[in-house]
Write a structure and sequence with these properties.
Radius of gyration: 18 Å
Strand content: 15-25%
CATH class of the domain at 11-52 and 91-165: Alpha Beta
Largest sheet: 4 strands, antiparallel
CATH topology of the domain at 11-52 and 91-165: NADH Oxidase
Shape: globular
Distance between the termini: 30 Å
Helix content: 25-40%
CATH architecture of the domain at 11-52 and 91-165: 3-Layer(aba) Sandwich
Structural class: alpha+beta
């Protein structure tokens, strides 16, 4: 049932991954789920760049060095985490949004469509028993230094993927009644 899948979706962080690789066909299935997200005017603004193998190490080095170069008071522990995180993941998907050149819809709608594509990926990962986590550090504004971005393309975050062994905690939400107003 879809509601159970939604309720079971969790952030599983790179430190929790067990190092087992993810098959290319599985990553393609996750991306196919993303491709079916809702999109106003069919702009399909989501763009993904899959980082695997040795490129994960290059991504970690890039993020760590960019952090040290741009942060006014860098912390060594954060630089180390940025360096290590991509290597803990089986793959990292760079999440991008390509702005419609005709600007037929407001930018926020294309960002929302891309977020829905990521939610589809997250739900597919949940169904497949793969851990994932959407990270959006300030460094995403520098991602064009790691991988070329097209004109009008913007990085919205990094989606870490990995197998995990631990039991995930139960989800918690405040009651829906605190968030809904009924208008008759």
């Amino acid at each position: 049932m879809i509601l159970e899948l939604i309720k079971n979706r969790r952030a599983v962080f790179p430190a929790q991954y067990n190092g087992k690789p993810i098959a290319l066909s599985t990553i393609e299935k996750i991306l196919e789920a993303a491709n079916w997200a809702p999109t106003h005017k069919r702009t399909e603004p989501w763009r993904f760049k899959v980082v695997q193998g040795d490129a994960r190490e290059r991504l970690g080095i890039y993020l760590s060095e960019k952090y040290l170069d741009t942060e006014k008071k860098p912390k060594n522990i954060k630089a180390r985490k940025l360096l290590e995180k991509p290597m803990q993941a089986a793959a990292v998907i760079i999440i991008c949004m390509q702005r419609d050149p005709e600007e037929r819809v407001p930018e926020w709608e294309e960002i929302a469509a891309t977020a829905m594509a990521v939610q589809n990926m997250w739900l597919m990962c949940t169904e497949l028993g793969i851990g994932c986590y959407w990270s959006s550090p300030a460094l995403i504004s520098y991602m064009d230094g790691f991988t070329p971005l097209q004109e009008g393309e913007k990085c919205l975050g990094l989606f870490y993927l990995g197998h995990y062994d631990a039991e995930l905690p139960e989800g918690e939400r405040t009651p829906l009644s605190e968030k809904v107003s009924w208008i008759d």
